[in-house]
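[INFO] parsing input record for PA2169 family four-helix-bundle protein
[DEBUG] input buffer:
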Amino acid sequence: MADNDDVISTLNDLIETSKDGEEGFRNSADNVDDPQLKAFFLRRSLEVASSAQELQGLVRSLGGEPAESSTIGGALHRRWIDLKTALTSNDTLAVLNETERGEDVALNAYRKAAEKDLPINVRMVVTRQLEGAKRNHDEVKHLRDAARAAAEVH
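[DEBUG] output buffer:
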């Protein structure tokens, strides 16, 4: 079994990834005009924020100091979404492409964490949140595919 410091480090990595996702979904909402897509992104941002809070609680319960912010890479990714959206004619498709890329990162982080030998209570939370990351990724991919098909028709 991973020692306490390794578990805290793993959870803090997921917190940072979740903070990236929370801010990324909020940024995506800011970069689309479609009200339904905007609402989707805002809902996902709130859900991911809740996941980060749950992970922070786990870190505290293990005697650690939880991460409070996103990563530099996540901030750069959000700026890339802003730039790409400004430079492309189909901003919704560009935002969905970049949002999916961000969800790829989250999914990989959760898969990596789930492979570790974590305490059962931590493993249960990580596994449940991994399912949420898969759902987010698949929903964004579906929306992206639909936007791509609509763009090809026009």
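[INFO] The domain at 4-153 is CATH 1.20.1260.10 (Ferritin).
[INFO] shutting down worker
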